UniProtKB/TrEMBL annotation:
Keywords: Coiled coil, Leucine-rich repeat, Nucleotide-binding, Plant defense, Repeat. Residues 8-99 form the Disease resistance N-terminal domain. This is AAA+ ATPase domain-containing protein. Belongs to the disease resistance NB-LRR family.
Length: 975
């Protein structure tokens, strides 16, 4: 069982504790009732946890399932009642503050209203107490948490045996992988071969880790003095594992080891160490689930310098890293997958499906995603087809059922049981997070930022001391990746996942679990299922069938907490007033959301997360202040220039994502919980910087100064000094200087790691305070000119690893190039981009000793004509690995250009590290065309008309965009 049966328990208990506070002025009797509920629910939560820890091969009794489902629904209903009370007491429309007679009447009516609300919550609590009493009595009557569970079907260990004893014909695609693994294990004849070597095979469930480890074990075990292959599994019995290991290592001497019931774990470890002390052994430890199990086992595997080898297998990347060298097992190639599929169905990998089944087989294999377990499972179903049934129709039906969680055949159940081990091993906090991914279609690249904020809106992310909710969500993502439950698609420079995907077989499992527990109800685009009586989460996708429209009309939405609409047809969506307790509303793909719809949404007082497409909205309603519990506001493609002043009342707002360059109202500094503003904040007066400096929780910031003068400098530094949680910052506009006399920011954003400065004309100097930012690792900066003082500041930034400098003008009185040498430390710099038309710098011996990548962009006329050569000292950068040089040829002659090319090539050839060199030439006309393409693309993204031609233009412009941020700036307008 999982967090899905726990329901709202995680967020409910703190709310109950909060409700007893004096500020809510509840009657003493009601507070007593709440304290009773709190005690009872804690007891129920403990019982649920006990049930959830039942062995995976022993599912809970039907009575247990019914009871846990009832507790879950009860927790949801109770939380809804509490939230309704909170909304009526704390939220909603603000009472009148006028001192007139009308104001007096309003306040008096408000007090009467609040008295009635408190009376109603008392009635609700009394009713729920009665329900809890019934549930508790049922638990006692049936001894729910004491019901012995019984094995159902084949156990996981039984299913694992099939991986150990697969027929040779089923080992398609493993030969090459086994040879690769053997290369990592076999002796090389050197000193290193005497050391113990541990290789850990890690990968998604069903990829064939056990099969591969067993194949390598069978090939190599004859080269060692002794060997053993033991499985740890999910709930390891360490005594039995050690006894099994001893018996395999020496069957004669340890024939009766299992009879040694009195041997402790410590004795068994000592016995193993003594036996292995002088032997060259080869041991496979299969299916390790956590680091503690491995730590215990490795005590027994003595390091004896006899050249012993160990293979471990695991689904968890963290465990693999702890064990030894990581061998990431990849899915089968499409060719190998096809061979395995054909072998299983037709008895030969060379025999292909007939023409009428070829397309269906390709679709099925693509959905299997190269996972051998999935291929064998589906192929077994297809090969066991009833002869009377039409083969083509059957294959098509099997394909459509894949990933839906609806197929109930024995083979698919066995596959789910193997995959479900990973799911049940998840901590309870991660289970609803994983099930929530059913919201997205198969093969969809899920944006991590959006996913985490949705989790937060749903209440899945639990508070942790010292971390924001978003940071906790990032930890959840990392755990799911490490456990092979989601697959990273795109990573950022710090190896954090930006987008992810769910494998179709995991999607099938989570769909099945979600349907079973009524976690998420989906309508449209899939095989129809009967909706539960109480729908908690609803996803609507392409509702175009008459039956689906009719079904939607019969549904009760009074308990729906989350509504996601993936259909563009907004008119098919039920009236939003029928969703009284909605917390998450995602209408981002819905067109035709009008002004009156937005006004209606502003009366959905429970909302935590709101995302809409505002292309048809012309007015931002002042009623937005009603959404007092809103944490995330995402409004795409909105053409309104200024937000209403009432938005400053959203005290719980953490993320604001609206159209770029929208004006925030006066007093926006009251949004104390704000952590992220996606889009650029227009700064039109120094007083706005005071508001900005009040947002002390901000993590990211982008500002645009329209009319910069000296009066902005000190207020901006004061603003930065207050933003102590800032991690990334972009500054653009008419900036000329940033108070360079200031040595440090106090207290300042000490965790700031990224600054992007896009000054239209370039700033006068690098601010000295930058060198006080200990974690600043990435800096893009545009300078009017580059001098020694600038290099001193840049070179002393302690963690700077990625630096981009654009220099606007040459230094008038400079007759020789500026020398970059040892005096400028640049102690962490590994990547440097210099766009400097005049290229007034030269690298001296010992400069930038950790630099690996260098990108130079300059004009032949500007750089060479002034100094007479292209000698930039590239031969002196000792750690250099890659050099890219773009030469703007403008009006230079071919002879001049070739001379520059030769000189650069010669310098690179002289470099001791022999770095690779890429040379590019660009004319002014080519640059102009790229700029024109980018401008068109930006407009297309803004008006929603982006199509194939848009992406073709960007592809042409891409080389220039990588290094020229001025050229790329229009794309920042893309929402």
């Amino acid at each position: 069982m999982a967090e899905i049966v726990v329901g709202a328990m995680g967020s409910l208990l703190p709310k109950l504790a909060n409700l007893i506070k004096e500020e809510y002025n509840l009657q003493k009797k009601v507070r007593g009732e709440i304290m009773f509920l709190e005690t009872e629910l804690k007891s129920m939560e403990a019982a649920l946890i006990k049930v959830s820890e039942a062995p995976i091969d022993h599912p809970p009794d039907i009575q247990v399932k019914l009871w846990t489902r009832e507790v879950r629904e009860l927790s949801y209903d109770l939380e809804d009642s509490i939230d309704k009370f909170m909304v009526r007491i704390d939220g909603g429309k603000q009472p009148s503050k006028h001192h007139s007679f009308k104001g007096f009447i309003d306040r008096s009516l408000n007090l009467l209203k609040k008295g009635k609300i408190r009376h109603n919550i008392g009635i609700d609590i009394k009713d729920i107490r009665s329900r809890i009493k019934d549930v508790s009595e049922r638990r006692d009557r049936y001894k729910v948490d004491q019901v012995p569970s019984k094995p159902v079907g084949r156990t996981i260990n039984n299913l694992r045996l099939s991986a150990l004893y697969r027929k040779a014909t089923e080992l398609v695609g493993t030969e090459e992988k086994s040879n690769d693994l053997i290369k990592r294990l076999v002796d090389d004849g050197g000193e290193a071969s005497k050391q113990q070597v541990v290789v850990s095979i890690v990968g998604f469930g069903g990829l064939g880790k056990t099969t591969l480890a067993n194949l390598v074990y069978e090939k190599l075990k004859g080269k060692f003095d002794c060997g053993a292959f033991v499985s740890v599994s999910h709930n390891p019995n360490m005594d039995m594992i050690f006894k099994n290991m001893l018996h395999q290592l020496d069957g004669e001497n340890y024939k009766y080891i299992n009879n040694q019931a009195t041997w402790s774990e410590e004795q068994l470890i000592n016995e193993l160490r003594k036996f292995l002390e002088h032997k060259r052994y080869f041991i496979v430890i299969d299916d390790i689930w956590n680091n503690s199990a491995w730590e215990t086992i490795q005590y027994a595997l003595i390091q004896n310098e006899c050249g012993s080898r160990i293979i471990t297998t695991t689904r968890n990347l963290d465990v693999a890293k702890q064990s030894g060298a990581v061998y990431q097992l990849e899915p089968l190639s499409f060719t190998d997958a096809t061979k395995l599929f054909n072998q299983r169905i037709f008895g030969s990998e060379d025999k292909c499906p007939p023409d009428n089944l070829a397309e269906a087989s390709r679709k099925i294999l693509r959905k299997c995603g190269g996972v051998p377990l999935a291929i064998i499972t589906i192929a077994s179903m297809l090969s066991n087809r009833n002869e009377k049934e039409n083969t083509q129709n059957y294959w098509s039906r099997v394909y459509k059922s894949m990933g839906s969680g609806l197929d109930g055949s024995t083979n698919v159940k066995d596959m789910r049981r193997i995959l479900s081990v990973s799911y049940y091993d998840l901590p309870s906090r991660l289970k609803p997070c994983l099930l929530y991914l059913n919201l997205f279609p198969e093969d969809y690249a899920i944006e991590i930022e959006e996913l985490i904020w949705k989790w937060i809106g749903e209440g899945f992310v639990q508070e942790e001391q010292g971390r924001t909710l978003y940071e906790v969500g990032e930890v959840y993502i990392e755990e799911l990746v490490n456990r092979s439950m989601i697959q990273p698609v795109k990573l950022d420079g710090n190896s954090k996942t930006i987008t992810c995907r769910v494998h179709d077989m995991v999607l099938d499992l989570t769909n099945f679990l979600s349907n079973e527990e009524h976690f998420l109800t989906k309508l449209g685009g899939q095989k129809e299922i009967s909706p539960p009586n109480k729908i908690r989460r609803l996803s609507l996708n392409k509702i175009n069938q008459e039956e689906e429209v009719k079904l939607l009309g019969t549904m009760d939405f009074s308990h729906v907490r989350s509504l996601t609409v993936s259909s563009k047809d907004f008119h098919l969506i039920p009236n939003l007033s029928t969703f009284p307790v909605l917390r998450v509303l995602d209408l981002e793909t819905c067109l035709e959301v009008k002004d009156h719809h937005f006004k209606d949404i502003c009366n959905m007082f429970h909302l935590r997360y709101l995302s809409i497409d505002a292309n048809s909205i012309t007015d931002f309603p002042k009623e937005i202040q009603n959404l007092q519990f809103l944490q995330v506001l995402h409004i795409r493609r909105m053409h309104v220039i200024k937000m209403p002043s009432t938005i400053i009342h959203l005290q719980q707002l953490q993320r604001l994502w609206v159209s770029p360059f929208i004006r925030l109202p006066d007093g926006f500094g009251k949004l104390k919980s704000l952590q992220e503003v996606k889009g650029t904040v227009i700064i039109e007066s120094p007083s706005m910087l005071h508001d900005l400096g009040s947002l002390t929780e901000l993590r990211t910031l982008a500002v645009d100064f329209r009319d910069w003068d000296d009066s902005y400098e000190k207020p901006f530094i004061q603003c930065l000094s207050n933003l102590v949680n800032l991690k990334s910052m972009r500054i653009e506009g008419q900036i000329s200087s940033l108070y360079s006399e200031c040595d440090s920011l106090d207290p300042g954003p000490q965790e700031l790691c990224s600054i992007d400065m896009d000054a239209v004309h370039g700033i006068n100097a690098v601010p000295r305070w930058m060198s006080s930012l200990c974690f600043l690792s990435s800096l893009n900066i545009e300078l009017l000119s580059l001098g020694e003082q600038d290099l001193q500041v840049l070179g002393s930034i302690p963690s700077l690893s990625d630096l981009r400098i654009i220099v606007k003008k040459p230094t008038q009185d400079r007759d020789e190039r500026l020398v970059i040498g040892k005096c400028y430390p640049f102690q962490c710099l590994t990547r440097l981009v210099i766009s400097y038309g005049f290229m007034e710098v030269v690298f001296a011996p010992g400069a930038m000793q950790h630099l690996k990548k260098l990108y130079l962009e300059f004009s032949v006329q500007g750089a060479v004509h002034k100094f007479g050569d292209a000698n930039f000292g590239l031969e002196n950068l000792s750690s250099l690995e890659h050099v890219t040089v773009k030469i703007l040829v403008d009006s230079s002659t071919p002879k001049e250009v070739e001379a520059v090319v030769d000189e650069i090539q010669k310098a690179v050839d002289m470099n001791p590290g022999k770095p690779t060199l890429i040379l590019k030439r660009e004319t002014i006309q080519e640059r102009f065309m790229c700029g024109m393409y980018v401008q068109r693309a930006a407009h297309a993204f803004m008006d929603g008309s982006a199509g194939p031609n848009t992406y073709k233009r960007l592809q042409i412009a891409q080389p220039a965009l990588r290094t020229n941020r001025v050229l790329a700036a229009p794309l920042l307008l893309r929402d």
